[in-house]
Design a protein that fits this description.
single chain; alpha+beta; eight-stranded mixed sheet; three-stranded antiparallel sheet; 13 strands
């Protein structure tokens, strides 16, 4: 379903831009799960159209999160999960501030195809380069999650930590726009992950070793849970947004495309290559920013 990007956190490269990518590389981690408090989220309807007692749920989730963060060892990363209302993933995506974000949903609501995930913010950004980048990516992720502590509120399923991002087909292949912000590799461990599957949803906070800012975590949690408890805003269809805001589609010149195909065929005929995938780019300038959730 795509992802959203924007300005990167201070001190980091802008790894996530408004370009399409799919979620890759999911690494399960075995960790402890020790509930510390009782958290109840009351849903008026199965699909979150009527949510009761939002304030009570926020208070209970905040108490759980505060107690767990204060009890964590300082040198361990953590993934802390609380219950959340079941809403459309686009509603979750719209709550995030400018910065790294993604939305991943299976083609259907069949739970066997995996959960629907929305990530907001980044606890960590990984961007190894060169021909050994895949191995480096796995090593960096494993080091960051070494000693991971997982805590989930009672009745809340523990969520598997996931690094989400994309890889260029080959080192250096992203050296040209619009992929330069990605580079060879761009993966993030979301700070907040919304996960829904099988009629239930959770909201999880990822903390790296040394990150124990309780006030920030509780402020973000309250904003997200209250936002999820509000009625979803009806987004304008993407077709309407594009037709009213597009300045005209710019396509590749047909003659340059034909020349490219001729060059590919000649290279294959010479025996230098067995397969080459031709690609062309279309540019759609917009007069105003496009809402990612509307496109999805």
């Amino acid at each position: 379903r795509g992802h959203r990007g924007g300005a990167a956190p201070r001190g980091t490269a802008p790894l996530f831009e408004r370009v399409g990518a799919k979620s890759l590389a999911l690494w399960p981690v075995t960790a402890q799960n020790s509930p510390a408090s009782d958290v109840v989220w009351s849903l008026g309807h199965r699909h979150g159209s009527g949510i009761a007692d939002v304030g009570r749920a926020v208070s209970a989730a905040s108490a759980f999160l505060r107690d767990v963060i204060l009890s964590l060892p300082a040198d361990a990363p953590a993934l802390l999960s609380v219950p959340a209302p079941l809403v459309a993933p686009e509603q979750v995506l719209a709550l995030g501030p400018e910065g790294p974000a993604f939305l991943w949903a299976p083609p259907t609501l069949n739970t066997e195809e995996g959960p629907t995930l929305v990530g907001l913010g980044a606890a960590a950004l990984l961007a190894p380069v060169g021909p050994r980048r895949i191995g480096a990516l796995q090593d960096q992720a494993a080091r960051l999650l070494r000693g991971l502590v997982q805590r989930a509120a009672p009745g809340t399923a523990a969520v598997t930590p996931r690094f989400v991002g994309a890889l260029a087909f080959a080192p250096g292949a992203a050296a040209q726009p619009p992929w330069t912000a990605f580079g060879d590799t761009a993966f993030a461990l979301p700070r907040w992950t919304y996960c829904s599957q099988g009629g239930a949803a959770t909201l999880s906070l990822a903390l790296l070793a040394g990150d124990r800012d309780v006030a920030r975590a509780l402020a973000e949690l309250a904003l997200l849970l209250r936002g999820l408890g509000e009625p979803a805003q009806t987004a304008r269809p993407a077709t309407a947004l594009m037709s009213s805001g597009a300045a005209g589609l710019i396509e590749q010149d047909p003659r340059s495309w034909a020349a490219q195909i001729d060059a590919i065929r000649a290279a294959i005929a010479s025996g230098d290559f067995r397969k080459i995938v031709a690609a062309r780019r279309s540019l759609l300038p917009l007069r105003a920013p496009l809402a990612e959730a509307a496109v999805l």
